[in-house]
Recover the amino acids of this structure.
């Protein structure tokens, strides 16, 4: 029989999230049952709960930054045991057969990955995420959280952490490389930490200098305000890699102009309007404009192990479930440093 668990649910785009109960399936042979301890709040949760992306299947339980403890396993599970510390990120299944899935890039599944929430699973049932007391997930889409990282500060790594780790690793951030992180928010602060741990020379490009002290504390070597026009002049042809975490339409010609020969600008933010990329700015210096989206399961595990090795966790503010709606408003107002995490004991 399915198990009933407490959750916080979005019922309509114009309604606040509210407490409710949902059903979790009985574990199948390869399923892991996870008692959720903490769930991070990602801006994607807000876009979905408020219907801002236009494809929310209400009612839905948001949350794809999940950390908890295994409480039961299916009869054929080999990867995890009861009591293990585990996490679940942005997706809980994929086709497993296409070339990206076979290569460990399940996030780019040609048939579409199954989102942790606001999706439909193989049984035709809607998926619900981490704003709940428990979740049941196939073992192949679960990651182990190493000792040394608190479950609370590990939760945002399952989205924010891997979203930055994947492009930094793919474009070889490391010693001898100059890396710029655009924006010091829920995503950007993880980029600074990870790029610094990889050995790169790290610069933060932010609208103002108000977070400069934080940026330097987190590992940045340099910090510049993009509101100062001299920034783009002084940093022309400077960076091997620029990672943009801001979901706004930036003046791309200026940012591309900061790339060195063969440099790459990676777009992580998802602005409302199409991005204009001037061809000459790309052609000059043989620059590249690219995108990236989370990471596969193996890479996510690699990221968690890397963060444990380097003592990296997310900068968090832990809240009770009754503060979720307030937290949403604060995220939109950029009033958090740097990630809200829900203590699910309060559900």
């Amino acid at each position: 029989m399915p198990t009933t668990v407490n959750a916080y649910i979005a019922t309509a785009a114009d309604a606040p999230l509210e407490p409710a109960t949902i059903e979790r399936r009985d574990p199948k042979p390869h399923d892991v049952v996870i008692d959720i301890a903490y769930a991070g709040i990602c801006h994607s949760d807000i876009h979905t709960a408020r219907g801002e992306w236009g494809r929310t299947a209400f009612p839905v339980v948001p949350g794809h930054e999940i950390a908890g403890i295994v409480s039961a396993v299916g009869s054929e599970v080999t990867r995890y045991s009861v009591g293990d510390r585990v996490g679940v990120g942005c997706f809980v299944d994929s086709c497993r057969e296409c070339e990206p899935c076979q290569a460990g890039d399940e996030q780019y599944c040609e048939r579409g990955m199954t989102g942790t929430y606001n999706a439909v699973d193989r049984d035709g049932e809607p998926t619900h995420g981490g704003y709940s007391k428990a979740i049941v997930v196939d073992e192949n889409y679960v990651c182990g959280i190493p000792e040394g990282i608190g479950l609370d500060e590990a939760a945002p790594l399952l989205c924010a952490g891997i979203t930055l780790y994947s492009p930094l690793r793919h474009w070889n951030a490391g010693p001898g490389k100059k890396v710029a992180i655009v924006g010091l928010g829920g995503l950007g602060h993880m980029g600074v930490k990870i790029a610094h741990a990889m050995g790169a020379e790290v610069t933060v490009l932010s609208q103002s200098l108000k977070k400069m002290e934080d940026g330097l504390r987190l590992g940045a070597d340099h910090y510049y305000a993009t509101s100062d026009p001299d920034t783009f002049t002084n940093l022309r042809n400077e960076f091997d890699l620029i990672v943009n975490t801001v979901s706004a339409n930036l003046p791309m010609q200026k940012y591309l102009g900061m790339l060195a020969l063969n440099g790459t600008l990676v777009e992580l933010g998802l602005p409302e309007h199409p991005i204009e990329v001037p061809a000459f700015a790309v052609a000059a210096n043989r620059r590249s404009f690219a995108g990236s989206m989370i990471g596969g399961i193996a890479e996510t595990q690699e990221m968690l192990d890397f963060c444990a090795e380097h003592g990296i966790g997310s900068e968090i503010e832990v809240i009770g479930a009754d503060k979720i709606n307030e937290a949403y408003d604060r995220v939109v107002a950029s009033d958090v440093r740097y990630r809200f995490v829900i203590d699910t004991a309060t559900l």
User: Anything to note?
Assistant: The radius of gyration is 20 Å. The first helix runs from residue 43 to 49. Residues 71 and 106 are 26 Å apart (CA to CA).
